[in-house]
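Board notes (copied after class):
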Amino acid sequence: MILQYIIIFIVAFCMGSLPTGYLVARAKGINIKSVGSGNIGATNVTRAMGKGWGALVLIIDALKGFIPVLLVKLYFKSLAPQDMYTLMTITGVLAVAGHVFTPFLKFKGGKGIATTLGILFALDPVLALLVIMVWVLAFLITRVSAVGALSAVLSMPLIVFFLFHNKPAFDPMMAFAAFMTLFIFFTHRDNIKRLYRGEEQAFKKNKAEK
């Protein structure tokens, strides 16, 4: 059993490590690390290449978290709920760690939002949809992607509490939510500094939205 855990952890980290944004941009002759913020995530890809390419990167990055956690959910479904969710959340954290610290780009990857979103869908679709609603609302108000992301992860522990407070999975889910909130704030530390200085770039409204 321990060997199986080690294998799934390695698979999760390796899947997370796939530098999607970098590879997609490279395929179009663009070095995404030298464009805009230099980040390989969907937001920077959108700014550099357009919404379609940004959406593609977002989906693939989300799948990097969704697939390994879903595999755990299906393969280890005989475990007690608390044990299964503990294993799922650890697997998810490793997928995000692979994305953020990808060895393919000298351990400098994305910020983990899309991959975290994929994990949430595998853990509980209702949780994922509620977190997305917070992200969308904050983004529509501010037009700043980082504000949407940070607002979404801040809401995650509260949403987990209301959805899981009387369920066996509560402890691992709350631990995951708290850890990921702190971790996403860490990966967005430069964005937070720019927000404090009023320098964070906002997305302009389309004419149809005005």
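Comment from the instructor: The chain has a mean pLDDT of 94. The chain has one domain: 2-209.
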